[in-house]
Amino acid sequence: QLNAVIFDLDGVITDTAEYHFIAWKQLAEQLGITFDRAFNEQLKGVSRMESLERILALGGQADRYTTAEKEALAHKKNEHYKQLIARMTPNDLLPGMLDLLRELKRNHIKIGLASASKNAFTVIERLGIREYFDTIVDAAKVQNSKPHPEIFLTAAEQLRVAPSTCVGVEDAQAGVAAIKAANMFAIGVGDKEALKEADYIVKTTADLTYDAIVHAFHR
Ligand code: B16
Ligand code: MG
Question: Lowest CB count within 10 Å: 46, 93, 107, 117, which one?
């Protein structure tokens, strides 16, 4: 029986990856590091500090800064990111997502959020979908980042449902791995090759309908 659907945020509900990209790119340029969209793909689902480490490593600057300096750099990126997301509106919801949330509610399926972003609350508020979520678990509430299952397990616990009755939805490989490790049914949104660990894959959120989820889960 399907009791809950637990969503990742960035790349599933909305495309904040673009804003992360703009903010990291500006910081990287100030440090003399250039990176492109292809590299940005590798930052999806990865925490803020780990993203910074990867960018510094890309520029051959892995050992150049102290921990305090790195925290200041990450803070600077986040301030820019916060400016960008402050302008988000319900129009920034990915195709079909509002319908899906409505359908889940109508069918009494619980809805959770499991996001590696510390800005998850703000984004959900800006998108105007706070009311749909029965629980929101973000990076500030867990010790271990994806692919560790903690964030998905915490969401299931707060929803008071068994993990095996949950569907998790992710766009990142580490996220799909986290869902599988939590013993949930994993739906991947995006590239078949990259997300091959998922139990069911859709190309875009437009294909992520309530019926498709229920069918896949009971197959
Ligand atoms: P913040 P998700 C992740 O969110 C993003 O995919 C990733 O690119 C970002 O670095 C991470 O959140 C941390 O975000 O700096 O706002 O705490 O995909 O797990 O919803
Ligand atoms: Mg994501």
Answer: 107
